[in-house]
Amino acid sequence: MIKEQYKYSDLTSKIIGCAMKVHSTLGSGFREVIYQRALAIEMNLEGIAFNREFEMPIFYREQQIGTRRVDFLVQNVISVELKATTQLENVHFAQAINYLEAYNLEIGLLINFGELSLNFKRLNNKKYKAPLTKIQSKNPQ
Question: Which NCBIfam families does the UniProt record give (predicted)?
Fold first, then answer.
């Protein structure tokens, strides 16, 4: 389990570093979309692959019931949810965790640009289900 916890450490550190550059340049006080655009520029400069405002389906009992957009889906494995509020609240954490669970992603970041100092939290999906891998035969044909 400890190995899994650190699997994405380098990537999340790079994303946080990009967010720190954005926050140190812009400070607080802008709308979320401004930080989102600036973070996209910074992650591009760092060579981090991502999809911005990535729309993903939401399922209930194996039936699609809607869609939801995550601010960033980084390398198809990490969700990044941005806020620009004076203080993170429980509802923000709940939203970020819901995204992880709905998309079955193991790790996410919640980043708030609205405070005087950048505030970020790494989030783990306790309900994450690793995809099944095929067992390879010892005698391939």
Answer: GxxExxY
Token readout for 69 is 């957009």
- Report the alpha-carbon distance of residue 27 to residue 48 in Å, rounded: 23
What DSSP character marks residue 106? Answer: S
pTM of the model as a whole: 0.85
Domains, the chain, ordered by start:
2-124 (3.40.960)
Per-residue pLDDT of the chain (141 residues), as tens digits, is 444 446 799 999 999 999 999 999 999 999 999 999 999 999 999 999 999 998 888 888 889 999 989 999 999 999 999 999 999 999 999 999 988 988 889 999 999 999 999 999 999 999 988 877 655 445 544
Side-chain-side CA neighbours of 99 within 13 Å: the count stands at: 26
